[in-house]
Amino acid sequence: MTLVRCVDASRTFGQGDQAVVAVHGCTCGVEPGARIAITGSSGSGKSTLLHLMAGLEAPTGGVVEWPELSDRAVERSRDIAVVFQGPSLLPALTVEENVALAAVLTGTGESEADRRAAAAMETVGVAALAGQLADTLSGGQAQRVAIARAITLRPRLVLADEPTGQLDAETGEHVLEVLLAAVHETGAALVVTTHDPVVAGRLGEHWRMDDGRLVVPAREGVL
């Protein structure tokens, strides 16, 4: 029942003397319903590991597998959603158009994409912003919209990369509540990278990246 599994997966950027190993031989897995926080300092490899899990980066060593998901990247993209740390909305589109985009890009018809977008916006409490242009939103509003977009297709796995990292404490807490409520409502597993011990404390499993090496408590690791 493992959604994503890394087996001795590594990721190196560059070649020769310029090579940088971002992730060293990582072995871990995420099961349905998991709530995992990955902590570690800046540059420790947290984001790269998340990108490997999402299929956004290909491992340069080892393998990343999705046993319970499709082998085809296009189909798998319906089951895995990513929430990024920085701005990820298209500024010239409205909130509703941004949220519906996830469904449109995976081949969903326009009317069904609009229906799914409306449901997702209602779930995260941004329905009132539907007609507003993305570039007029506050940071907290933009992250809530990004969460709505992430859950539009009711994914089985949500990967959030420092989702509160650029927000003040109060706004970040609200965004975290929205994210936790959204994955609870959809039944998705959740993996969050974070510097914030408060955020990590809200999640049941704690993993740590240390200079590109993943430390997973033995009782929590899924191989």
TrEMBL record:
Entry keyword Nucleotide-binding: yes
Taxonomy, superkingdom: Bacteria
Record-linked SMART domains: AAA
PROSITE patterns (UniProt xref): ABC_TRANSPORTER_1, ABC_TRANSPORTER_2
Alphabetically ordered keywords of this record: ATP-binding, Nucleotide-binding
Residue ranges of every copy of the ABC transporter domain listed in the record: 4-222
Gene Ontology molecular function terms on file: ATP binding; ATP hydrolysis activity; transmembrane transporter activity
GO cellular component, one term: plasma membrane
InterPro entries: AAA+_ATPase, ABC_transporter-like_ATP-bd, ABC_transporter-like_CS, ABC_transpr_LolD-like, P-loop_NTPase
PANTHER family: ABC TRANSPORTER RELATED, IMPORT ATP-BINDING PROTEIN
Protein name: Putative ABC transport system ATP-binding protein
